[in-house]
Amino acid sequence: MFGKRELEGSADRVETLLGRSTEFRGALISSGHVRIDGKLEGEISHAGELIIGESASVTANIKTKSLTVAGHVKGNIDCEGRLELVNTARIFGDIKVGQLVIADGAVFQGVSSMRSAEPAAPRPNPKPA
What is the rounded CA–CA span in Å between residue 125 and residue 100? Predict the structure, then answer.
């Protein structure tokens, strides 16, 4: 599991940082390793590893490759790979993920759906009796 120490250690790989005292409004389009510790309102389209830190407040729809959440997110999330909610995470919105990890203490309110490796076979319609 992605513990708090590992979350803090990920700062060594971060290419872009939205700091605690930063507020951003608009569309964030990025790739690589991005960490948000401030306030963001708008939308996020990210083609890499995204980290939403414990002090972050994000009100946005998010489309990303992988995501770790320790802060507050209000909006829908579409994550191709792994979405991890650490114990301080608060998510209010629907999620679509490849993998989902929720730590004890995290809050998630919404609908979740998992991407499957293979499309589901159509279910036959039952015939009326």
Answer: 31
- Cα gap 88→23, rounded to integer Å: 21
pLDDT tens per residue across span 98-108: 999 999 999 99
The answer to whether position 117 is within a domain reads no
pTM, two decimal places: 0.79
The tally of domains found in the chain comes to 1
Pairwise CA distance, residues 67 & 78, whole Å: 10
**CB contact burial 76-91 (16+ within 10 A = b; e otherwise):** bbbbbebbbbbebbbb
With contact defined as beta carbons under 8 Å apart, do 113 and 78 qualify?
Answer: no
Task: Give which of 62, 55, 20, 21 is closest to 41, Cα–Cα.
Answer: 62
Give the per-residue pLDDT at 129. Answer: 57
Burial 24-45 (b: 16+ CB within 10 A, else e): beeebeeeebbbbbbbbeebbe
43 part of a folded domain: yes
pLDDT of 11 > 70? The answer is: no
Per residue in 108-117, pLDDT (tens digit) is: 999 999 987 5
